[in-house]
Amino acid sequence: MLERLAALEAADTVAPAYTSSGYIRFLDAAGHPAIAPPWGTLTAIDLNFGTIGWQVTLGEFDDLTDRGVPPTGTENYGGPIVTAGGVVFIGATQDEKFRAFATDTGALLWEIELPAGGYATPATYLANGRQFVVIAAGGGKMGTRSGDSYVAFALPE
After folding, report:
1. Cys-Cys link to 37, which of 43, 72, 97, 155 (CB 3.0-4.6 A)?
2. Would you put residue 12 in left (φ > 0), alpha (ψ -120 to 50) or beta?
3. pTM here?
4. Of 147, 128, 151, 129, nearest to 138 (Cα)?
5. CATH architecture of 36-154
6. Any idea where the domains of the chain sit in the sequence?
């Protein structure tokens, strides 16, 4: 039995064949993804036919937009929700905005800046007969500020 324990202790000290030092992003000198844009998209898929209904670029870098570059999209963390009224809500973007899109066309209906990145899937709820959408704004990814807010919006009556 002691021999077996000694063998196990010796096995614990052997260096692993492979290690990970974390996820390293492939970025250019300005800190943008070093691949061709778009760097983030929101896509509506028709599940009946397996086709793309529409696709929009999701997110933008202000420094590129200020130089006249069309929106490139950003890395995205967090999914969308869809309401029965035909609206898609999503945060997820490095530009820390929360957006609403029309489900039938992908047209941007509304956007607002969050206090920190909304890297979470939003939720919807009903209170006193009014529908709300809420998102956690915790940020902290991709060099963005950290936060500790839940931000809720009342949908039009």
Report:
1. 72
2. alpha
3. 0.84
4. 147
5. Beta Barrel (2.40)
6. 36-154
